[in-house]
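Protein fold
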Amino acid sequence: MSPQQTDSNGSNGSDLAPETRWMLAVRDHRDKVAFANLFDHFAPRLKGFIIRSGSAGAQAEEIVQDVMLTVWHKAEQFDPHRAQVSAWIYQIARNRQIDLHRKLGRPVPEELKEEPGLEPDASQIIAVQQETQQLKDALGRLAPNQRDMIEKAYLGELSHQDISTATGLPLGTIKSRIRLGLERLRHDLKGMR
């Protein structure tokens, strides 16, 4: 969207968060690049949210795929005046989890039960976004070899042995880089919580 263009809400987009601009581009133009940006941004966050809500890793990945597919197919239902992109997507994820628990005959975990009329807490969403940015900044300050190992181990979910096989580096070197990188991250993020 060029600065002169406006979205269907009359905004030129410059005052919107990147996630909102991406979502509007998906909604209004079926923009695949914008969807890829949304996916890259939300998929790891959703996976963490889903795992913390009691689903296993493989099941969480399936739910994330299903949620993001729903985001693509139901993009026209997104209204930035009613909810932030993150709240809208997390609501879809929450509903998928509840449906899955009911389908499998399991009780719905307390953290997934919704109280009627309860709106998503925008301050919590903003706090998570700020913490995410602080983590990105702290990762960016790491030595490239430490950052690479941490990303492979934690974001790529590779074992130390898998990283060793992929990079050809000795296992001790990988463990050392991860340990030093995590110590640096802990120091940089000490005041976050």
The chain is about 65% helix and 0% strand. Residues 32-52 form the longest helix (21 residues).
